[in-house]
Specification:
Layout (H helix, E strand, L loop, with lengths): L1 H10 L8 H10 L5 E5 L2 E2 L8 H9 L4 E2 L6 E3 L13
Parallel strand pairs: 1-4
Antiparallel strand pairs: 1-2, 3-4
The structure holds zinc ion (ZN).
Zinc ion (ZN) binds next to loops.
């Protein structure tokens, strides 16, 4: 499960190599679940509404943003992303 989450995060480009240290740290603290999808402005793990500014930053996938509440690394999956299609 953890590996698949990491793989998914990599596919959407949310996790870059220099972020892996942060990822690893959060994973150890959170029983291996270090990432949370940000969807519709909400952290899908703890269901807390993110501030619009935070969500916009997550959507750009340019920097690592952690959920204020659960501390997981937030990533955004564009609507076009489909599990049945291989990553380009
Ligand atoms: Zn959260």
């Amino acid at each position: 499960m953890v590996a698949s989450l990491l793989q998914e995060a990599r596919l959407v480009g949310a996790i870059d190599p220099k972020a892996l240290a942060t990822f690893d740290l959060v994973a150890r603290r959170r029983n291996g679940l270090a990432v949370a999808e940000a969807k519709d402005g909400i952290c899908t793990i703890c269901h807390v509404r993110l501030r619009p500014q935070i969500f916009n930053t997550v959507r750009r996938n340019e920097e690592i943003i952690q959920c204020d509440t659960c501390q997981r690394i937030l990533y955004f999956v564009p609507q076009a992303h489909s599990a049945t299609q291989p990553a380009p």
